[in-house]
Amino acid sequence: MLLIKDATIFTMEDDKVIERGDILIKDGKIAEIGSGLKADNAEIIDAKGLYVVPGLIDAHSHAGGFRRDGGPPDLNESSDPITPQVDAIYAIDIDDPAFKELHEKGVTTVCLIPGSANVICGTGFVTKTKGKNIREMSILNPAVMKCALGGNPKGYGKRDKEPVTRMGVAALFRKALKNAQIYMEKKEKAEGEPPAYDHKHEALIPVLKKEIPLKIHCEQFDMVTAIEIAKEFGCDYTIEHGWACDRFSDELVEGGGAVMFGPIGIPEGSGELTGGDVGFVRELDERGLNVCLITDGPIFGADVLLISAGEAVRYGIPHMRALRMITINAATGLRVGHRVGSLAPGKDADIAIFNGIPALETAAKVIYTIIDGKIVYKNSV
């Protein structure tokens, strides 16, 4: 057992802040939240003067699959522009330093996904950031089908393969979904011999059945294409990066898919890799769309997640709204909100404890990170 005492607690269940609150943890779960809690034989964390939040969540990362040391980029199967059958879990090295950095920065959950070399890139999964092996750490697999519009998949044109243009990208995307749809319908209607097994079509059936969403790398006007194709096939979707989302607020709100915005630091302007002002998400959040902030790690470090929330506050987004964008909003967007993203009895005991108010005080540092009720990081500062 573990008992956190006398902390200021941001549960993210609502906007209420509990002063001098306690959290009792048993068997990796939150057992109770209140004041004056006691437990015999529990390890106690004296959190007086400290601030407790749910473990932070990065909803878009490639940690452990793209290496900063120049190792092989195992998350881009760039042999074919359509590869829904590949699974990111087979590419992840949890001994990569990026994993240690994640939990040291208070990030306890990430969605790890293939890169964006292909039109359809493969499945991603949701995992904790500390554990014995990636399969034990994983909490949802498959979780998403990663896809990409825009310049990345157009790179096949350099090898004299399609797609070469945005027209070609959209056409291949539609073709893959349509072929999978026909295959699925034939399977469902087959009274005798089913259609010959096709691993690509099989991988897309959960998308067509809305069991997992399309997670679509896109920005600028590509977002409109993403919404249109998802609507055409009745798929759930999330918008990844979403730079210049302010120009398409009506379309994004009407479409309803979460916007997973970032990383920040992209210049303003038109065209790809511009429009990264985090203030652009304020209207979307105010209009009820689920907005998350992401790092695209390890391209950007884990600390960028908290910096992004702080920048959102600087641009006028209320502090609690910004904090939601890296906790419960991300959990909801990834369909794991029943386990992580907020602090409540029965949920996983994934907790970050800071010496300042995260996303509000720039000097706030992680003092403890707790995953499944175990202290996985302690800062001596």
Structural class: alpha/beta
Oligomeric state of the chains present here: single chain
Please give the alpha-carbon distance between the first and last residues. Answer: 25 Å
Indicate the overall shape: globular
Radius of gyration, Cα only, in angstroms? Answer: 21 Å
Q: Give the number of DSSP strands.
A: 16
Task: Give the count of helical stretches.
Answer: 10
Question: DSSP strand (E) fraction?
Answer: 25-35%
Largest sheet: number of strands, sense, barrel closure? 8 strands, mixed
Notable features of this structure?
eight-stranded mixed beta sheet; 25% helix; 10 helices; 381 residues; single chain; alpha/beta; 16 strands
Describe this structure as you would to a colleague.
The chain is α/β, with parallel strands linked by helices and about 375 residues long. It is about 25% helix and about 25% strand. It has 10 helices and 16 strands. Strands 1, 2, 3, 4, 5, 14, 15 and 16 form an 8-stranded mixed sheet that branches. An 8-stranded mixed sheet has the order 6-7-8-9-10-11-12-13. It is globular and about 65 Å long.
Please outline the helices and strands:
Blueprint (H helix, E strand, L loop, with lengths): L1 E9 L6 E10 L2 E6 L8 E4 L4 E4 L1 E6 L35 H8 L2 E6 L7 E9 L5 H4 E11 L17 H24 L9 H10 L5 E5 L3 H11 L4 E5 L7 H7 L2 E4 L19 H6 L4 E3 L9 H12 L4 H6 L3 H6 L17 E4 L11 E6 L2 E5 L3
Parallel strand pairs: 1-4, 1-5, 6-7, 9-10, 10-11, 11-12, 12-13
Antiparallel strand pairs: 1-2, 2-3, 5-14, 7-8, 8-9, 14-15, 15-16
Helix pairs in contact: 3-4
